[in-house]
Design goal:
Layout lengths: L12 H13 L3 E5 L5 E4 L1 H7 L8 H8 L2 E2 L26 E4 L5 E14 L2 E11 L1 H10 L4 H22 L3 E6 L4 E4 L1 H6 L4 H4 L4 H4 L7 H12 L3 E6 L6 E8 L3 E8 L1 H19 L3 E6 L4 E4 L1 H7 L3 H4 L4 H4 L5 H5 L1 H8 L4 E8 L5 E12 L5 E10 L1 H68 L5 H29 L2 H6 L1 H15 L4 E6 L8 H22 L3 E8 L3 E8 L10 H6 L3 H12 L3 E7 L3 E9 L10
Parallel strand pairs: 17-18
Antiparallel strand pairs: 1-2, 1-6, 3-4, 4-5, 5-6, 7-8, 7-11, 9-10, 10-11, 12-13, 12-16, 14-15, 15-16, 18-19, 19-21, 20-21
Helix pairs in contact: 1-5, 16-17, 19-20, 20-22
Length: 637
């Protein structure tokens, strides 16, 4: 015979213990039905009365087999027990039940039925107690006793006592109310919740005892169960205790019965879990948790977006089946994960494959999870896609390396350029020194010698001729010195302006190179240019024209000067042979065009720009644009 299971719940062991006591001690036949009306437990008294093969029978099959019916012959619908409507509710107040025993004998019994709740939101079993009163009923019928109803009610009360024992032993609150809304039964837990005793509540009208319940959700559901005769369930915050309860109300013949349990802790836990769930869904990092066997237990929205896997696809699966790193070395390297055993985090940047096969780089921090007893129960990882960040870092590092290389290259170029400029300056100094030594100075030496000879010359005529020669040579020396001085810095540049200085220079150049046709379009600067601008632009013109006569092999050159109040433009264009313009000034210096290099440096010091355009066989153009009002560092000129 199956052991009477009643309610098997780890949270309600006292129910199971109490049912076991009833099974062993009561003489009444006890059946336990599940919510589908299937008998899944009974005691020895039930086996003796109905037979040992009760387990697994449907309630309808049992009622048909035992011919369970009322006095008026109407059959009993035991199937209503599965909907938690007590069977006794179908019988008149002075009625009882007839059935056939296992031996076929017609018997009479009083029935008590009640659902039992193992969880707050549903009943899990129904308990039916049969009290055999066949002998008592026969005696009363034969003797015409007027105490049949009293005796029957007494027997019924005794049957109810066993269920009351169970109701008193459980932690759930329970009370019964008749159709006049009076308490007919209150277990101890329910009475304590109202801060009263059971005796203080029995017979009291609920609305008079607690008028604050009128108009509340409780009244609405209680009246619905009472008037519509249907079971209802709901969650509500208690008006007396401010705790939260799950309430189950079902109709009975006398009124309604109410079961409730305190779910405050459960709601607090649910709210706590909901809050943490909201946190997990709110943060942008992917959060993944596993148990000690690496089976996934948590997977937030960011983890879905990162991996491409939905939560319902991964829960319960091993993390390695979902997140593939493509690196067995990493997965099998115990040294990598050893800090987790010591309670320390492991921080990694690892490439993983998404569900769609695309590889991304993820930065992860993994921590162990310990229970309050210090036992390892799992792991949690937070990760984010750093693919674009890593690519940007790599690109930045590459750009930095390239820039550093270019800076080093530029530094070397500038060092070489500075060295070549110094050489150029020294060469120019040497040229000036030689010109002075071989020209004016030799002439002066000769004049000094001739003058010394005059002292000993006897003829006045000869002396006069020598003096004339000396004067002529002195004029030549003077002109030579003036030319050298002009090349160093023309006086007209300061006194007459840039336009006059350029015209004077081209006139001197035209005398020296008469075959070169010069076309000048020069706008007077009217002294609006600072001295630094005049000198820099004159040097550009000087260098450009010198290159024309020395290298270009040109027959014609044009010089244009436009002087605005904000911008000065100087352009020198020839029809010579042209050359290939290099990208860097250093290349010009290496080719010996130090003049252009120095001119470009001067223009850049003024905040301007020098451009050289040349095509082989078609000539060269030098164009300079210098802002007039821009502040400059004249010390660099």
């Amino acid at each position: 015979m199956p052991k009477l299971p009643a309610v098997t719940s780890p949270e309600r062991p006292e129910i199971e213990d109490r049912i076991t006591v009833v099974e062993r001690q009561t003489a009444e036949a006890v059946l336990v039905l599940d919510l589908d009306g299937v008998i899944h437990g009974f005691n020895q008294a039930a086996a003796d009365l109905f037979g040992p093969d009760l387990a697994g029978q449907q309630s309808a099959q049992f009622a048909e087999r035992t011919d369970l019916h009322f006095r008026n012959g109407k059959g009993v619908n035991m199937g209503k027990l599965s909907s938690r409507q007590p069977i006794i509710g179908e019988a008149p107040e002075d009625e009882y039940f007839f059935f056939n025993s296992r031996d076929g004998e017609e018997m009479v019994a009083l029935l008590s039925a009640s659902p039992l709740f193992a969880q707050g939101d549903q009943a899990t079993s129904a308990v039916i107690v049969f009290r055999d009163i066949t002998g008592v009923e026969r005696f009363n019928v034969e003797n015409g006793s007027q105490q049949t109803l009293v005796e029957r009610n007494q027997v019924l009360a005794e049957s109810h006592w066993w269920i009351a024992e169970i109701l008193e032993s459980i932690e759930d609150g329970f009370f019964a109310i008749d159709r006049q809304w009076r308490f007919t039964y209150v277990n101890e837990r329910a009475a304590k919740t109202g801060d009263m005793t059971q005796d203080e509540l029995i017979g009291q009208v609920i609305w008079e005892k607690w008028p604050q319940l009128i108009g509340t959700t409780l009244e609405q559901y209680y009246r619905q169960a009472m008037e519509e005769r249907v079971p209802v369930s709901f969650e509500v915050e208690g008006l007396l205790t401010r705790a939260w309860y799950f309430v189950r109300v079902y109709p009975t013949f006398e009124g309604i019965s109410v079961f409730w349990i305190d779910i405050t802790k459960r709601r607090e836990m649910e709210q706590h879990l909901a809050y943490h769930s909201l946190l997990l869904e709110t943060i942008h990092d992917a959060v993944m948790a596993t148990d000690v066997d690496e089976r996934i237990t948590a997977w937030n929205r960011a983890a879905e977006e990162l991996s491409g896997w939905r939560t319902d696809e991964v829960l319960g699966r091993k993390i390695g089946e979902v997140i593939r790193t493509g690196s067995q070395t990493l997965e099998q390297n115990e040294l990598t994960w050893r800090p987790l055993q010591e309670g320390k985090p492991v921080v990694l940047e690892v490439p993983i494959y998404r569900k769609d096969g695309r590889q991304i780089l993820v930065s992860t921090t993994t921590m162990p999870i310990f229970d309050p007893g210090g036992h390892l129960i799992g792991y949690v990882s937070a990760g984010r896609d750093v693919t674009e960040q890593k690519q940007a870092e790599d690109a930045l590092q590459q750009a930095y390396n390239e820039l550093e290389g270019r800076v080093q290259e530029r530094t070397q170029e500038l060092t070489e350029l500075q060295w070549r400029l110094i050489e150029s300056i020294e060469a120019e100094r040497l040229r000036v020194s030689r010109e002075l030594h071989d020209g004016p100075m030799q002439d002066l030496y000769g004049l000094i010698y001739q003058a010394s000879l005059l002292e000993d010359s006897p003829s006045t005529t000869e002396r006069q001729a020598e003096v004339t020669t000396i004067l002529q040579r002195l004029k030549e020396v003077n002109e030579s010195l003036r030319t050298i001085a002009y090349d160093l810095r023309p006086v007209s540049l300061t006194q007459l302006g840039l336009e006059k200085a350029i015209r004077e220079y081209t006139t001197r150049l035209q005398i020296e190179y008469p075959q070169l046709e010069m076309d000048l379009t020069l706008q007077p600067d009217e002294n609006i240019l600072p001295e630094s601008h005049r000198l820099a632009l004159f040097r550009v013109c000087q260098v450009g024209l010198n290159n024309v006569v020395r290298h270009a092999q040109a027959s014609r050159v044009e010089v244009r000067l436009e002087c605005g109040r904000e911008l000065v433009v100087l352009e020198i264009q020839d029809n010579g042979r042209g050359f290939e313009v290099p990208k860097h000034l250093l290349s010009l210096a290496r080719r010996g065009h130090l003049g252009l290099v120095g001119a470009a440096e001067r223009v850049e010091a003024l905040g301007g720009k020098l451009e050289v355009h040349s095509t082989i066989g078609q000539g060269t153009s030098i164009r300079v644009r210098v802002p007039v009002r821009e502040r400059i560092d004249s010390s660099r000129l």
